[in-house]
Amino acid sequence: FYLTGIRLAPKEKLDILVLFMPDTMKMYEAVVVIHLMRENGENWPCENSTELKKNSKSSVTVAENGGIQGILWIYPIHGIPEAPQQKLVPVVVRCQARQRVERRIEVLLTGVVSGANAMPATRNSTMVDTKKPADIQEVQVSFSTTVEFQYELQYQSNEIKSQLGALVGMHLIQREWDTESGAVRLIFNTVFAPNKPMRNKATLAVQCTAGGVWKFPVLFIATEPEVDDVINIEAVGLNKESIVSFKLTSQTR
Question: pLDDT tens-digit profile of 67-79?
């Protein structure tokens, strides 16, 4: 795909529109090359054209007479498909403040990465909570079969990230492959240890090395903690003060 004959005035900006419409869940690569030449056909003067041609083959084109014929800008592009977003019911991880809970989350990935058996990216993501014990919830999401997976928890803001970053841990503990259906099940172990009541959303983003990103929501809820102690103050008489002293220890600075 080429565009020629675009005229630019001095200090004028050039906007380049890049469209990406993938049909399979794999990464696509392209390069945008901009070649700038003078409108009158003349070359830019250059004192040391031989050295420039030797060291800058990718940035300039040098004419036979030693001048600079054109200037190149090369922009590599990686197109990574993302599964269509749906109104998914978030997986809820609930824990009482100052306690610790472990929750297993299963992610079902279906699809083929590339080649003759590549499946269209129209297989939408779906997520369901199955009827399993309270400590197990399941998520189903469209994915591509590949050996390597990368995952991370994404938060709505840096403030939420600072709150949940040290309180939440997620680790991939098991992978199960089904060669007949081309599906893979990823099993994550999630640890949530809140220090105060909160209700924050996060997004688990999973990406395969061949390309393709799938996301699904997770909701972290920390309920009120248990009462530390009960303070009893006995009255010593009418209109007289009763005093009870106790110590408070700060967990942080």
Answer: 788 888 888 999 9
